[in-house]
User: Fold this.
Amino acid sequence: MSNSFINWMKSFLGVGRTTVNMTATATSTEQQLAIEIFAIHSAINLIASSISKCEFKTYAKGVEFKGETYYQWNIQPNLNQNSSQFLQELITKLLFNNEVLVLPIGDQLIIADSFFQEEFAIKENTFSSVTKGTMPFNKVYNMSDVYYYKLGNTDIRALLSNLIVGYNNLLNMSMTKYKKSGGRKGILDINSTASGNKNYQKTLETLMTERFKTYFEAENAVLPLENGYVYTEQAGESGKKSTSEIADIAVITKEIFERVAQGFKIPPALLRGDIADIEATTGNYLTFCVDPICDLIGEENIRKSYGKSAYLAGNYMRIDTTCIKHIDLFSISVAFDKLVASSGYSVNELRVKAGDTKINEAWADQHIITKNYQKIETLGQEVKEVKTNGKENI
Assistant:
């Protein structure tokens, strides 16, 4: 027990006081909850895990092509990480710090832990004091030498932290009320003989810091008391919890998660783990949260890895976010058939999207269309011919 509590007890007793109200919750330090940190990390982990499932597709002259760049972003970006680990670290630092720096070192991509950026108006920004773990990179990098991703000019995490301080205070107050409502309570009577003893202060300190603390914390215990001290347990108080405090905690926790979800553009129901209307919720999540981040990364990769002339010639990278959603073959069988029949996709293209392997046959790469699909002009001409033939037959 802290000295501050002992001093408070001494002051509380004062001169002439012979009765002290005791409660188990008075002997423990208030437990602070940091639900804000948990909510923010939950949101960031959700986004990072989602984007780590994406496929970074590369194209040469408009045709999908798998080469060194594809392997680097989808399999092994560096010697110590696979692509999933790399992307989770990249997205986590991007969302937590609002920016992240990636260094192309040889054929490896290294995510910097810290760096200093010097900004200029009409020439390239530079990066210095770059470190990764305990390793410093004693070099000044130009903007064109690195991949630099930045979400915006506002640090959303810092804003959320400031916003949620009030919620955290309310939550801690509700937790304290909840704990106190179920504390063991009793009355300690101290007669004048005990309080007048020369060892009174030492005896009281031992009683409060050792005996009562052990008594309150133990499941079953006996409380030894000296002459002049009588402790009476208040029956019916132990174990009572106020349902209003429990409701307050649930409401405040929900509010914190909703504010964090809104800050990161995640549907609140998805962050809370609700499964109602999950299809629509996931669609909104991909559209408003994941896709913008992937566009940011893809555009930076294109301008640094390819450049203007190569991009205009059909050489570029595209991040495929359709890989995030789990595909059940039986649930998409009708849609699969319509996509093939309308010539939207070949059989092999859809097999790849469904997570299966290609068929090593030429016909599986062809685009086909059923006879039900035709131009409106063609249909009109056929109707006209039928009418004309009918008149001639008459």
